[in-house]
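Q&A log
Question type: sequence-to-structure
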Amino acid sequence: MQIRTLFLAIVAFFGAAGCGSTTEFTKNWKDPGFEGRQFKEILVVGMSSDNIARGTMEGSLVKAFSQYDIPARMGMEVFPPLLFKEKLTKEEAKDRVRQSGADAVLLISLLDAKDTEWYVPGAVVYTPAPGSMAMYGYWSSSWNTIYTQGYYGSTKEYVLQANLYTTADERLIWAARSTTTDPSSLESFAKTYSGKIVERMVRDTTVVPPNN
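Response status: OK
Response body:
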């Protein structure tokens, strides 16, 4: 497993972001040879050097797994923040995962962040009433003409990749790419994303909850 730091710092924009957040899957894949399993523990690792973003995402995913009674653990417990400032070798990363006792690892990384600006031009809103085009009718109705001023806006879009591996053979068993638009806060973004990711894993019968 190669530890990367692709998850960009997404906290800076939230003060100006809108409230109409949406998360949609653009790609979803499951190993056709994998029939699903009840895992002993899933290690959740946010691939980020931003400790706030990473901790929030990992914590939200662990909580989302707990809704299905699926054991999960934050990657920060195995890969402390300072380790992301060092260059871990593949063997060192494998040793830490093996020592954690987790039999599956979920890696979350941010692939892209886009900020698209757009402009809505102003317009004159006016519908003549019958007879209003006569001289004094026009005089009266013209006062009701409304001009809407043009304005600028922006859309913020984040593309995330989630990969689930079995630790024993480092096998990729499930992957999903999703797009989140205009999240209102880091916490709400992480909560919504985590809920959808875990729900999809369970629905795809990749991760099987206990007693199922």
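Response note: The chain is about 25% helix and 30% strand.
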